[in-house]
Structure formats: structure tokens, C-alpha cells
Amino acid sequence: xxxxxxxxxxxxxxxxxxxxxxxxxxxxxxxHTLYWYRQAPGKEREWIATITSPSQSxxxxxxVNGRFAISRDNARQMVYLQMNNLKPEDTAVYYCxxxxxxxxxxxxxxxx
Length: 112
Prior knowledge:
Blueprint: E1 3-7, E2 10-12, E3 18-25, E4 34-39, E5 46-51, E6 58-60, E7 68-73, E8 78-83, E9 92-97, E10 106-110
Parallel strand pairs: 2-10
Antiparallel strand pairs: 1-3, 3-8, 4-5, 4-9, 5-6, 7-8, 9-10
């Protein structure tokens, strides 16, 4: 069964850090490019990071470049998003995806 399951969200103060995890299964994980997206209240879903495989080439949206880092562990079929120096505008539900299939997301709230 194909799935994406995100975890690791929570509430943090501005300047804080979180590490999101995503467990995936049911497809050829090692050969798929994977993504993180987010959706803030009242806004459209926004792409924030991509990681290819096997080269693990990475790219980021300008809004998170230099603060967020995407990574993957093909042996464990996991994708990660390390988020540093979080800002209130990073508040959103975060999703990992292959752009065809989506998980339920994990909520990140940044507030003082």
C-alpha cells in the first residue's frame, strides 16, 4: 500500500528548530524524486524543497533557502526536513510527496 506519513511537527518560538520526518512506502522509493510542500491557512499549497535520487540533488524555495535542509535515507525509506531559524510565516501544514500522492501532513506553528 502506498503511503506518506509525516511526523515531527509542533509549536516553537521564532528562531527555533524542528525536524520533520516522513515515512514512505508502496513505490520504488530509491528512484523517486521527493518533495516537501506546505500550506498555510488561507493560502495555496507551496513547494519548498526537492531531493532527487540517487544523486540526492537538492533545491529550495527562496523563502526557506539557507534555513531548511532536505535529506533522505533510502535504506529506511525516510525523508527529512530540518528547519532552523523558524519564523511565524513558516506556520503551515507540511507535506511530503512524490507530487502524485500525499500524506495527511504535520502541523508546524511558530509563535511567540
